Amino acid sequence: MTRQLTGRGAAPGVALAPAFVLETDAAGSPPPETRSNSAEDELARLHQALRTAESQLRELAETVAETVGEADAEIFEAHAEFAADPELASIAGEAIREGASAERAAIDAFDQFRELLLASSSEYLSARAEDLVDVRDRVVAILQGREVVVAAPEQRSIIVARELTPSQTAGLPRPLIAALVTETGSPTSHAAILARSLGIPAVVACEGLLDAVASAGDGDVDLAVDGRRGEVVVAPDDDVRATIEQRLAEEEQRRAELEALRDREGRTADGHRVELAANIGSPEDLPAAVEAGAEGSGLVRTEFLFQDRRTAPTVDDQVGFYLEVLRAFPGQRVVFRTMDVGADKPLPFVDRDPEDNPALGLRGIRLHLARPELLRDQLRALLRAGATAAQEDAGRLAIMFPLVATSAELEAAREHLAAVATEDGVDAGQFEVGVMVEVPSAALGAARLARQADFLSIGTNDLLQYLFAVDRLHGGVADLADPLEPDALALMASVIEAGHANGAWVGVCGEAASDPTIAAALVGLGVDELSMTRVAIPEVKDTLARLERGVCERAVRAALDEGHDGATVRAVLDRELDRELDRELDLGSN
Ligand code: PEP
Ligand code: MG
Question: Dihedral of CA 31/35/37/38: which sign?
């Protein structure tokens, strides 16, 4: 019998396929409570198991880096760090000395860490608690001599499970997975993040799922899934099947249409130019960004070069990476943001005091100015790479400073740049210098900053965080930080206007740029460049190509006049823009 269930949409797309219920054998046989060996032997077993788990997870991270992407691989690097955590090993070691078995000691130590995360009201941190379960189960499986393998379907299926851990998700054979549906879980869990990166539709928190599938019959049960709306239909009838099949055909056609846009420049229907660039987080992102038709990069997050290292990278190491990025985008602008690290992304080679509020602490340009030798090395490397790239006709280097709050900071950073250029005999004037506008004081002072810079780039992720006092890592309050709140949109409008009035071009490089409706609104406000996650580029390119600049201008004016919150601003934008577009604006976008 057909049953319709509703969960939370976690990754977009539709699917129709048989259900494959994943039996997760996380527990294995019940572990012994007390040790039968000496404490030394049991401790040795524990440490061996933790080391094995760590190396398995680092290997998994390498595989995921190659098959999915570097950003997703970090999930497993973080898991490996859990397994290597000395504090955890010491808590478990204490329990063993008091008589516990290695299995019991490991379970209790992981659970103790997990309780702390679960106690947080943050959906994000609670989701990290599930990651700990993944590592805990791996360690116990190793202690019990079991393989950590995931049963795989033999035909293309929709995976049904109570909960999926990130390593189970990464271990599933991608070509056989039509969609993922779980009874529990959250859209911010790492399993959901992986599903989005893999392009697999997913629904989480789908209550009643396992019972509905079990009671639908003994043999194969088909499911229909809509990962955007969070809908799951068990044993769909002919009408539902026909709808899903039609949507699958539409999605296929849409993919082909978008692919055809790859080599086209970003322009509105009447030819107004808007550069559509990709945000780059590591060298692994480059081929996919080029493939997606990115016109250079409006944000290279250089901090990845500095993290997870015991010593600072040398100038030569840095030049090598910067050149690799510049060579990927011949003739196009590549904006390197100087490393944006802070206490929440600590640098092991920089001594610093702990901070109660790291988001408000010594991060971004503040850290540069506190440790100018690091900044100078980075600027030296950037200038050398930029000069070599200019000779080779590779990409055009631009430098951007993060978290600028006052013009004095920008002035001080520019002085370092000028000094390094003089020392190296490089003409720094050939390279554009810009400022990230991600602190409200920088947005309000945009006119002054624009006079000191070639460009401004609005970082909506942090700007919204500081504007609405909403921790960007806190899922529970995230809805408050809507870029379409009238005051946020009006603030961005004022930055664009101030930039232009003072001779600077203005881009947007936060997540907001990847939403086609918001992108059209920003074009209506006069933005010159949009830099986004590469998966969003084709959709945004297509949307702009169908809209005249005047339509975008009228739509955003109407939205600012009539809208009184994020939802009404979006409704007015969609109403004004939909008239011009012969499709739903959000179809298939991320
Ligand atoms: C931003 O803050 O909007 C931004 C693009 O930078 P990041 O997300 O790296 O802080
Ligand atoms: Mg930022």
Answer: positive
